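User: Cysteine protease, Lactuca sativa:
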Amino acid sequence: MGWLWWISALFFFFLFPLTSLSTSYTSDLFRQWCQQHGKSYSTEEENLYRFNVFEDNYAYIIRHNSNSNSSYTLSLNSFADLTHHEFKLARLRGLSASAASDDLIRLNRGSSLIESSSYLPKSLDWRDKGAVTNVKDQGSCGACWSFSATGAMEGINQIVTGSLISLSEQELVDCDKSFNSGCEGGLMDYAYEFVIKNKGIDTEDDYPYQAKQTSCNKNKRKRNIVTIDGYNDIPENNEDQLLKAVANQPVSVGICGSERAFQLYSKGIFTGPCSTALDHAVLIVGYDSKDGVDYWIIKNSWGNSWGINGYMYMARNTGDSHGLCGINMLASYPIKTSPNPPPSPTPKPVKCNLFSWCSEGETCCCASNFLGICLKWTCCELNAAVCCKDHRHCCPSDYPICDSERNLCLKQTNNGTLAIQPKKNSDSGNSGGRSTLHKQYF
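Assistant: Predicted structure for Cysteine protease:
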């Protein structure tokens, strides 16, 4: 029986160092991952918790990647410190919940598709044709619907005009209130409806993304750089029609992205498993085949660190009419036949004096004077405003009475006095001489 004791001792001796070595390796890997993705945690408890989550995700990745029959691999991307529940709350709440229900109102259901030639190329990638902007990142705001919609509009605009212009998701998040709900979700059809009724949409550069919902900037909403003339809903569960549409332009689709493998996807052709409960919106930018497996080229809005530099290959022609992850269920695309409006004229400054000025649509107010000569000007962000005697406030013309003591703007009506609360802006302005400008809006 002595030999059994020796075997048990050797087993314990070797097992313990291997376990320690494995933990040490994962700890080093976690530190390297934190440096790579710029992650830090406020407390040691949070750091330990995130390490345990990371370790669990790493074990899941190893198990999946060891399956030689899988057509795709997983990796420690920027979401590797999130539990799957946390990931879904942060990234998969952007497609309206009604998208998967029978009572969903698709505003262009059953409309005719654009004409497509009988010949379809075996493969196509709209990135190669210059019709796809760089991968963007929606952050923790559930605005995937806006990224899918702008991506489709960017694509058709480039195809029609030859100009690739990155469009403003933030305008849709802030201003599209008829049906969509900003960071709480929306649908691409409704985004197209907004752009049509608004007679265009602003650029990303002019109205940049904030990853949160803010007040609609009405001035920027009026800057209609790119227009569309309509949109089409592709018949549900019709992959042939979807393929024809993608052969003509990038197409918006809804998918189910809530499987754990989706969170950590790295490369290869994603084959699921996944349900058809739609909870995420993406953009199809092409299609191809590899080793006899057909796939879509999907542009996501989770940044470059996810997937294939922000993209995924998703299996098509799977034999399920809904498509893998429900990709055939909620597809649509914008229509553009007319040119974009001419550029707006350059705003003309409003002169305060020879050396100082305000922007177009603002009012010059004197902030400091000596013997009737204004030494310092402020800009009120209102047109034809009333400048208050305290030299620090201004009121809109329809509330023309300044009450500086209570910091209110008033107006008299038959029923009494109405008041509005002032708003403040950060100091800014333009000056070409000794006079200085400070913007304040009250």
